[in-house]
Amino acid sequence: MWDPSETTLYSMMMFLFMETILEMYLTRRQISVYKQCKTVPRELQHVMNSDTFEKARVYGLDKAHYGMFKMIVCDIVILQLELYFGFMAMVWARSVEIAENIGLNPKSEIQVGCLFSLILNIIGIFKEMPFKIYGTFVLEEKHGFNKQTAGFFVKDQIKAFVVAQALTIPVAAAFIYIVQIGGQYFFIWLWAFVAVVSLVLITIYPVYIAPIFDKFRPLEDGELKKSIHDLASSVKFPLGQLFVVEGSKRSAHSNAYFTGLFGVKRIVLFDTLLVNKGLPADDPSLSESDKGKGCKNEEVLAVLAHELGHWKLGHVAKNIVIMQLQMFLIFLAFSKLFTYGPLYEAVGLPAGEKPILIGFMVIVMYVLAPYNTMISLAMTIMSRRFEYQADGFAQELGYADELGNALIKLQLDNLGFPVYDWMYSAWNHSHPTVLQRLERLKSLNKEGHKSKTQ
Ligand SMILES: [Zn+2]
């Protein structure tokens, strides 16, 4: 006899399996690039020596092999077993029992739901931890990127867990409550609630949450600070404070970003982006290997000109609008599907039992998986366009050469491998590769010269 819950389960398992196989195939393609490409591309020969190139190649290869291993263990073995044996339903049943034992009301879906989300998160930590430890203390360590001590790592993980629970449990409770009382159009209320929460989080995160994890110090007065303010005011960017974050406690990878939705914004520079971490060359905290690394002031400005491009061209606003629209569509789909019994039976619940949280997770993570995959590919493509546009903005401000130099420097400092398989890159990269960006900057510069002389 045809069983809709079995069909649902097997189609979900099948899709997730096929998606993982596709990702493994793409990684395989990139692995053969790492294996075959042993000489520095012509465009980079004057800046990248064969020694650095070889280091980047081995680093890339190690990461790709590790990625393959992780996909097999997590996405093929664990995920498929969890689905087949009804892992979520087991956790739900345990949550009901525990709720009873610790004096909560096992009939209250909100109370059981909070417990369920806590237990699921704890199990999630145990699943992820071996990979995190290996990734940080073996893989990154081997290639000289890990700067975390064991003590820092443990504290960091505990803080992250506590902050995550403080945010997810109340949201989960409110979520269930809204579905229970929201009536036929509960998805609108749900959307409004999540939209407000996410906007509040985006606003308070840099001020109250990020400092729990990392140390921020104001950028010292001086030439760099003055030029950044000049650059910001030249494009009418409402710059408030300028911070340097000790990203180097975590890892040696470098970056810069700005935060703040409304009103004044802050710019955050990773200390690893700056020459000598933005400190005087004789600062006692600088190690020999840190000295001389980082970008010159003009290059830091070029990186910021790119970031300001994202703001000026409305990329941030566009991303937020898309995110909200996305959320609305997901809640709408959820409201249409969540009463369908076989979805719950598919993940192992007894007939008639339909916990709201599980329904939401099954629909978002599994039923909508094909849709999510398409959207994420579209977003990756859009993000690459935004990157080119922001580079174009920096070029118009006259920073093309410095931006090119900064991109090369960051690539070298981060041991990024410059050559990619096109299919792997199209699927995975939110940024065009450095070679593509240099190429584009060069042609923009040529066009710029042409239009100036005309
Ligand atoms: Zn960018």
The coarse silhouette is globular
Number of helices: 15
Radius of gyration: 25 Å
Number of strands: 4
**Average predicted local confidence, pLDDT:** 91
CATH class of the domain at 214-294: Alpha Beta
User: How much of the sequence is in beta strands?
Assistant: under 5%
CATH topological fold name of the domain at 214-294: Zincin-like
CATH-assigned homologous superfamily of the domain at 214-294: Metalloproteases ("zincins"), catalytic domain
Distance between the termini: 76 Å
Give the uncertain stretches in residue-range form: none
CATH 2nd-level architecture of the domain at 214-294? 2-Layer Sandwich
Sheet with most strands: 4 strands, mixed
What's the order of the H and E elements? HHHHHHEHEEEHHHHHHHH
Helix coverage percent: 55-70%
Secondary-structure class: mainly alpha
Bound molecules: zinc ion
The largest beta-sheet arranges its strands as 1-2-4-3
Keywords: Endoplasmic reticulum, Hydrolase, Membrane, Metal-binding, Metalloprotease, Protease, Transmembrane, Transmembrane helix, Zinc
GO molecular function, one term: metal ion binding
EC number: 3.4.24.84
Subcellular location: Endoplasmic reticulum membrane
